[in-house]
Amino acid sequence: MDTETTPTKISSATACWNCDAPGGGGDFCTACGKIQPLSPDADYFAFLGLPRKLVLDADDLERRFHQLSWKLHPDNFVRTSDYERTLSLERSSQLNDAFRTLREPVSRVEYLLARSGARREDQHKQQAPPELLEEVFELNESLDELRAARQAGGDPQEMTELGKRLETARKNFEERLGKVDKELQGLFGEWDRTLEAGAGETQQRKLFERMNETLNRRSYIRNLVQSVQKELAEA
Questions:
Q1: Does residue 58 contact residue 45 with C-beta atoms inside 8 Å?
Q2: Phi and psi for 67 in degrees, rounded to 5?
Q3: How many Cβ atoms are within 10 Å of 201's Cβ, its own excluded?
Q4: Dist. CA 86–CA 68, nearest whole Å
Q5: What is the pLDDT of residue 142?
Q6: CATH for 1-103?
Q7: Can you list the residues of the chain whose pLDDT is less than 50?
Q8: Where are the domains of the chain?
Q9: What share of the chain is helix, strand, coil (3-state, %, to 5)?
Q10: Rounded CA separation 210/205 (Å)
């Protein structure tokens, strides 16, 4: 086992902890080959060698993940110092988190916004988007009627009719959810083009605002769908 003296505290560095070669922050030192701590400014995109784009090739992402996973796996460090084994565990854990986050479109854009300090969830989560007010009002009425009918013992025919109304509402909101997802995909492409064009902070912030609004609308509609599914399951 490697008996060399190793640092007692795991911390990111700008130079190699082992040989002091400049350019630290990568997975391995280019001079001595030792595994390196996580860079203080590296994010999930950088960790996987990707630009901060939102339209990603799923196969490429998985290939990058498996390649890095093999290089960083703790089994490769069984004969190294305690410090290097700890770095391997840290980087492997971070890699798994990065892959789980970036492979899903919604968590990917949420991560980008959070990293940029731009994620703002709706402060009025119970307030329906204006274009949904009428439908949400009708849905809540149907939900209240179903709960009241259930508590009263429930006339079978009434329960069936209420169930049909709620199933129709569920399908309608699922269609809306699909449209919001397509809207998000459009924003992904717009963001990538903006990034490629080297757009300034003002333009990026405007896109962040639109992404936030779309994500909050998506969250609201998704919660509606889940509420209806829950009530139908209990009917």
A1: no
A2: -65, -45
A3: 9
A4: 16
A5: 86
A6: 1.10.287.110
A7: 1-12
A8: 1-103, 130-234
A9: 65, 0, 35
A10: 9
pLDDT on residue 25: 63
Burial class (CB in 10 A: 0-12, 13-18, 19+), 174: middle
Q: Which stretches does DSSP call E strand in the chain?
A: none
pLDDT number for residue 143: 87
Alpha-carbon span 79 to 1, nearest angstrom: 5
Stated length of the chain: 235
d(CA 155, CA 73): 61
Q: How far is Cα 122 from Cα 235, in angstroms, rounded to an integer?
A: 31
Query: In a 3-state reduction of DSSP, which class is residue 35?
Result: strand
- Each residue of 42-61: b (16+ CB within 10 Å) or e? ebbbebbebebbbebeeeeb
CA 16 – CA 19 distance, rounded (Å)? 6
Are 173 and 129 a contacting pair, CB within 8 Å? no
Q: What are phi and psi of 227, to 5 degrees?
A: -65, -45
pTM, to two decimals: 0.83
Q: Express as a percent the part of the chain with pLDDT over 70.
A: 89
Token reading at 102 = 């970036």
Coil vs helix vs strand at 22:
strand
Extract the tokens encoding 147.
């709960």
201 close to 118: Cβ distance less than 8 angstroms: no
Query: What is the CB-side half-sphere exposure of residue 61 using CA atoms within 13 A?
Result: 22
Residue 2's identity, in one-letter code, is D
